[in-house]
TrEMBL record:
InterPro entries reported for this sequence: D-isomer_2_OHA_DH_cat_dom (IPR006139), D-isomer_DH_CS (IPR029753), D-isomer_DH_CS1 (IPR029752), D-isomer_DH_NAD-bd (IPR006140), D-LDH-like (IPR058205), NAD(P)-bd_dom_sf (IPR036291)
GO MF: D-lactate dehydrogenase (NAD+) activity
Family: Belongs to the D-isomer specific 2-hydroxyacid dehydrogenase family.
Listed EC numbers: 1.1.1.28
Transmembrane residue ranges: none
EC supergroup of this enzyme: oxidoreductase
This protein's UniProt keywords: NAD, Oxidoreductase
PANTHER family: 2-HYDROXYACID DEHYDROGENASE HOMOLOG 1-RELATED (PTHR43026)
Name under which the protein is recorded: 2-hydroxyacid dehydrogenase
CDD domains found in the cross-reference section: LDH_like_2
Residue span(s) of domain D-isomer specific 2-hydroxyacid dehydrogenase NAD-binding: 110-296
């Protein structure tokens, strides 16, 4: 069988080809799946997609009409997939339910320290042989308070690093993580966490209940000199409200690896054509804001685990097996 993989990065292609070698042929495309590219999948029973694929109703209908029966998404998140439509069309949909939490947690801390210690600004200056320290003042994280919203595997890994810095730990989640409690975390309501934290890092999935969990009211509760980090999903933050706070001179710094309107932008080179997203254009002009292009997961370790799980998902589909990675069940047999 030949499998069609959409949205494959250059670093990712040899890993995917090696993982499928001896099992199936795989055709890797650097284009992302959307309404315009969906017809390419005609004739492919199994396709694989990236986190920025458009798997809305129209795209799913095109895929099903072209003979696709199984979609293996190479990510944990699946907010880009209309699961109800997929089920009506009898499409099998799987994801990667787990990969290295350290990749995302460590990158969230890289954003934290880069924002706090003005690393990007300092680097740009020194390239111009400007070695002044004006405007580069940071602060110790030791003794300050970290608020972790979402204390699953990634949130726990972030918490362990915060503990290593000697920070006070506040947590908010639907259920307490005993490992975080053992590290000294106090679980409090979200309002208290926002009000008392010097650093707030988001590690919850994007669901209807968490959409814009950091909105105008939440931002107003935060300390004026807090640091906000998001390496989870862009839709957790109301970006328009965030820009308003930044224009008012609030927040010490913001580190974003995700953006709520990143589809059609992230993972692509827009340097020659520009970007017509006024909110994003305004956001990146703030000297205390650092935006990266959804790369927190992008380590050899995590990518290897994601690809291995994707191969296993395809094997399970062909063998008629179910696993925790299946989001939409396979159609019933005759």
């Amino acid at each position: 069988m030949e499998i069609l993989a959409f949205g494959v990065q250059s670093d990712e292609k040899p890993l995917i080809e090696k993982a499928f070698a001896g099992k199936h042929e795989v055709r890797c495309l650097d284009v992302f799946l959307n309404r315009d590219t969906a017809p390419i999948a005609a004739g492919y029973e199994v396709i694989s997609t990236s986190v920025n694929a458009d798997l809305g109703g129209k795209v799913l209908q095109t895929l099903a009409a072209g003979g696709t029966q199984m979609i293996a998404q190479r990510s944990t998140g699946f907010n880009n997939i209309d699961l109800d439509v997929a089920e009506r069309l009898a499409l099998r949909v799987s994801r990667v339910s787990w990969y290295s939490p350290y990749s995302v947690a460590e990158f969230a801390w890289a954003l934290t320290m880069a924002v706090n210690r003005r690393v990007v600004r300092a680097t740009i200056r020194t390239r111009d042989f400007d070695f002044r320290l004006d405007g580069l003042l940071g602060r110790d994280m030791h003794g300050r308070t970290a608020g972790i919203i979402g204390t699953g595997k990634i949130g726990e890994a972030f918490t362990r690093i915060a503990h290593g810095f000697g920070m006070n730990l506040l947590g908010w989640d639907v259920a307490e993580n005993p490992a975080c409690v053992e590290l000294g975390m106090r679980y409090v309501d979200k309002e208290q966490l926002l009000a008392e934290s010097d650093l707030i890092s988001l590690h919850v999935p994007l669901l209807p209940a968490t959409h814009h969990i950091i909105g105008k009211d939440a931002l107003a509760r935060m300390k004026h000199d807090a640091i906000l980090i998001n390496s989870s999903r862009g839709g957790l933050i109301d970006t328009e409200a965030l820009v308003g706070e930044l224009r008012a001179g609030r927040l010490l710094g913001v580190g974003l690896d995700v953006y709520e309107a990143e589809a059609g932008l992230f993972f692509l080179d827009k340097s020659l054509e520009g970007v017509d997203d006024d909110t994003l254009a305004r956001l990146v002009t703030f000297p205390n804001v650092l935006v990266t292009s959804h790369q927190a997961y992008y380590t050899e370790d995590a990518l290897g685990q994601i690809i291995a799980a994707t191969v296993q998902n395809v094997d399970d589909y062909l063998a008629g097996r179910r696993s925790e990675n299946v989001l939409v069940p396979a159609p019933p047999g005759p």
